[in-house]
Amino acid sequence: xxxxxxxxxxxxxxxxxxxxxxxxxxxxxxxxxxxxxxxxxxxxxxxxxxxxxxxxxxxxxxxxxxxxxxxxxxxxxxxxxxxxxxxxxxxxxxxxxxxxxxxxxxxxxxxxxxxxxxxxxxxxxxxxxxxxxxxxxxxxxxxxxx
Length: 146
Hints:
The chain is mainly alpha-helical. The chain has helices at 8-20, 40-55, 80-89, 99-105, 108-116, 125-139; strands at residues 29-30, 36-37. It has two domains: 8-62, no CATH class; 80-139, no CATH class. The protein is 48% helix and 3% strand. Strands 1-2 form a two-stranded antiparallel sheet. The chain is elongated, with a radius of gyration of 29 Å. The relative contact order is 0.05. Residues 1-29 are annotated as: Disordered.
């Protein structure tokens, strides 16, 4: 038994299979003409041909250009006042990291640059601020605790 062997993954898999009952699976595919293919070799060749046609496009005109329409309005750039008021609204000692305290030390131009820099994920924002402060304060001869 799987519970005695401490193999809980197989135990839950077996329990779920038992609850669902017998689920027959079919290995059937259709070819280009709509005929059914049951042989695994023919099915494999069909998938190979399908992806070959799908991925091997030799002409740019063969690729459909889709235009994406969104319902979102264009958001204007945040003003100097917006950034200042957002930083002022941050509560002290209420966040799980030190980002609000660090943001107060960073010049607003750097905040705007970070706002529009899309290659930095939000989770790395704290590290970017810390690196900036380390570099800035090191130039001034000061040391920062991380």
